[in-house]
Amino acid sequence: MKRAGILNRHLAGALAELGHGDGVLVCDAGMPIPDGPRVVDLAFRAGVPSFAEVLDGLLAELVVEGAVAATEVREANTGAAALLDGHFPGLTLVPHERLKELSAGARLIVRTGEARPYANVLLRCGVFF
């Protein structure tokens, strides 16, 4: 058994398969899940695990070169907006409907138990060298 890092075998395996430019959507429990991308559903109950916990864990494992979130997060979920701004100074904002369209092109979707609106971000993988 792994001592540290991501212990969920489905998530650890999916992350190992990602390459440069691949998209990873980290989303709340209410985000519609499109057909196509691989989905790792971590939601246990409302709020568990939180968007912040999952995002922090993923960022410890991934190199990210860009991020996209919904414009609506600024007014509807100031906590998620502050978290995203702190992690991604160059965060791109698009309307929520556009974020849903973009999520269909993600290679991986990680669903959290977050129950607050617009706690979603589409990450673009980078390389470590």
Provide the structure class.
alpha/beta
Mean pLDDT: 96
Widest sheet: strand order? Answer: 2-5-1-6-3-4
In whole angstroms, how far apart are the ends? 28 Å
Helix percent reads 25-40%
Low-pLDDT stretches are none
Strand percentage: 15-25%
**Main β-sheet description:** 6 strands, mixed
What is the number of strand segments? 6
Write the layout of secondary structure elements.
Blueprint: H1 9-16, E1 23-27, E2 38-41, H2 51-59, E3 64-70, H3 73-76, H4 78-87, E4 92-94, H5 96-103, E5 108-111, E6 121-125
Give a description of the structure.
It is a single chain. The longest helix is centred in the middle third of the chain and has 10 residues, at 78-87. The chain has helices at 9-16, 51-59, 73-76, 78-87, 96-103; strands at residues 23-27, 38-41, 64-70, 92-94, 108-111, 121-125. Helix content is 30%, strand content 22%. By secondary structure, it is an alpha/beta fold. It has five helices and six strands; from the N terminus they run αββαβααβαββ.
Give a brief description.
With 129 residues, the chain is an alpha/beta fold.
What descriptors fit this protein?
single chain, 129 residues, alpha/beta, 6-stranded mixed sheet, 5 helices, 6 strands, 22% strand, globular
